[in-house]
Design a protein that fits this description.
By secondary structure, this protein is α+β, with helices and mostly antiparallel strands. The chain has five helices and 18 strands. The strands form five sheets. Strands 11-12-9-16-17 form a five-stranded antiparallel beta sheet.
């Protein structure tokens, strides 16, 4: 902000800021951002703002800038760069960085390796190329388990941005997040029910900390043959068990304004058995809206609906 106003204090404050950069290139920030972001989202927001400040400076802070931009690029997961705010700032920083780089020297070859073996012929890239480089499906080179995919830039002083798209099926992610501040539990009283009857699904969301947690979200997977009853959801909303709800496909989303320290909020739903068959719900999950990189996952529920 001071750079935009051409305030002389900007350079000295930037010097102080750069002294707080971590070894991996990030800036940790304070306790929360103006949008109450915390955890990884807060780090990404703060690092992005630091990058934008470096690019406003008259002095070249290229070493530290590249370090921070690399940290941001590596932080992308299948969920993006985190919350809306952190994603917007990350993209803003990377776009600004791309504009200051010299494009004339960008040329070379790109090569992809899976587990150390090349899977494509080198593809030439330069500033005259105006279409993306799309490599064929790598699925034939991988199987279940861990694999190492490398993108190498040959005969080039610098690389170009790239993205690896990965599709797979899993009931819950292989990695688990242990730093989530809320814990979710779902319990279905029975695994078998007659068509036309109701089956109780109990959902408990607990604040596992000694502090108030704002804007938690619980996304509950509903087996396909069962359906929540709108009148009951409206009644529970009026009882202020949650602030708002919406149904998205086979998922029921509960939004909360907040949870007090160590508070547990329990919601009992009587789901109606509509369609006979054997069904499994999507996995359920819970997280804080501004800390969506830390998620508590719950395994799917199964139900068998029998005809009368």
């Amino acid at each position: 902000a001071l750079f935009k106003k051409q305030d002389k204090r900007a350079e000295s404050l930037l010097t102080m800021l750069l002294q707080t950069q971590t070894k991996e290139g990030s800036f940790k920030g304070t306790t929360a951002s103006v949008t109450r972001s915390r955890g990884k989202n807060l780090i990404l927001e703060t690092t992005s703002l630091a990058c934008l400040a470096m690019m406003e400076s008259e002095h070249a802070h290229l070493t530290q800038l590249v370090k921070s931009i690399s940290y941001i690029a590596k932080s992308k997961s299948r969920y993006g760069f985190g919350s809306t705010q952190s994603t917007a700032l990350c993209l803003k920083a990377m776009i600004a960085y791309d504009h200051i780089k010299s494009l004339e020297s960008i040329r070379g070859e790109v090569q992809v390796l899976v587990n150390g073996k090349s899977v494509n012929k080198p593809v030439i890239f330069n500033t005259k190329r105006n279409s993306p480089i799309v490599l064929p499906d790598l699925g034939q080179y991988v199987s279940e388990g861990k694999h190492k995919v490398e993108v190498r830039f040959v005969n080039s002083h610098q690389g170009i941005p790239f993205e690896l798209q990965l599709s797979y099926h899993s009931k819950i992610p292989q990695e688990q997040f242990n730093d989530c501040k809320v814990a979710l539990k779902t319990e279905m009283k029975r695994g078998e029910v007659q068509q036309g009857e109701t089956l109780r699904l109990s959902t408990s969301l607990t604040n596992t900390t000694n502090e108030v947690q704002t804007s938690p979200i619980a996304i509950i997977g509903i087996p396909s043959g069962l359906s929540p009853q709108p009148w009951q959801l409206k009644e529970l909303e009026e009882q202020q068990l949650f602030a708002y709800y919406e149904i998205i496909g086979e998922k029921l989303v509960f939004y909360f304004n907040g949870l007090d320290a160590n508070e547990t909020r329990t919601i009992h739903l009587d789901l109606k058995a509509d369609i006979p068959g054997d069904f499994e719900s999507p996995a359920s999950l819970a997280y804080l809206y501004y800390e969506n990189d830390a998620i508590d996952w719950v395994h799917p529920n199964r139900v068998n609906i029998k005809t009368n």
